């Protein structure tokens, strides 16, 4: 409160992040969510706000609150996320849509990730998820093509083994 009143953004950021981490460590997940919301309402640092919103989504996943997690992951783009946090939030959101039985929306979200050039370093992970969606939708030929692409193109990555297993 004093840091906010004094306009000391660095102290506010440090104190809030420490408190959120402590609450997670103590497994007071509801308290951590409340602190995340408090941080987001007061923060002026968009990059850290994106990270806090992502973390709030992960906490909501732990609480089995899919809708709140989806909302938190979606809110990450309202800030200035790093490429890594932007990808992770979109990826988690797309996976969550599949879990919530919104498979068509999940497929669209993963295809969006697939064709956004800034996420090319994560393409193998996206393709694995798309392949699994195609299996669920009985589009086996598409799934096989995707798993072959991952197995061939990303041979040095763990996803290659996952693709090889799916092909088997």
List the helices and strands and how they pair.
Layout: H1 2-6, H2 9-25, H3 29-42, H4 46-62, H5 66-75, H6 83-99, H7 103-115, H8 123-136, H9 140-153, H10 158-167
Helix pairs in contact: 2-3, 3-4, 4-5, 4-6, 5-6, 6-7, 7-8, 8-9, 9-10
Report on the structure:
With 168 residues, the protein is mostly helical. 78% of the residues lie in helices and 0% in strands. The chain contains 10 helices and no strands. It has helices at residues 2-6, 9-25, 29-42, 46-62, 66-75, 83-99, 103-115, 123-136, 140-153, 158-167. Helix 5 packs antiparallel against helix 6 (83-99). The chain is elongated, with a radius of gyration of 19 Å.
Order of helices and strands: HHHHHHHHHH
Unreliable stretches = none
Number of helices: 10
For the termini, the CA-CA separation is 58 Å
The coarse silhouette is elongated
User: What is the structural class?
Assistant: mainly alpha
As a percent range, the share of helical residues equals: over 70%
Query: How would a crystallographer describe the biggest sheet?
Result: none
User: Mean pLDDT across all residues, rounded?
Assistant: 92
Indicate the radius of gyration in whole angstroms: 19 Å
What is the count of β-strands?
A: 0
| Proportion of beta-strand residues | under 5%
Short description:
With 168 residues, this protein is an all-alpha fold. Helices cover 78% and strands 0% of the residues. It is built from ten helices and no strands.
What structural keywords apply?
168 residues, mainly alpha, 10 helices, elongated
């Amino acid at each position: 409160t004093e840091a906010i009143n004094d306009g000391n953004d660095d102290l506010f950021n440090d104190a809030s992040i420490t408190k959120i981490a402590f609450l997670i460590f103590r497994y007071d997940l509801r308290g951590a969510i409340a602190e995340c919301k408090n941080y987001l309402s007061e923060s002026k640092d968009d990059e850290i706000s994106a990270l806090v919103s992502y973390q709030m989504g992960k906490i909501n996943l732990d609480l089995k609150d899919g809708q709140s997690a989806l909302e938190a992951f979606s809110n990450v783009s309202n800030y200035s996320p790093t490429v890594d946090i932007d990808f992770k939030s979109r990826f988690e959101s797309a996976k969550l849509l599949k879990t919530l039985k919104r498979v068509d929306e999940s497929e669209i979200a993963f295809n969006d990730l697939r064709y956004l050039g800034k996420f090319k370093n994560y393409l193998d992970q996206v393709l694995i998820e798309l392949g699994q969606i195609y299996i669920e939708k009985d589009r086996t030929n598409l799934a096989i093509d995707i798993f072959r692409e991952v197995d061939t193109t990303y041979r040095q990555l763990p996803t290659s083994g996952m693709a090889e297993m799916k092909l088997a």
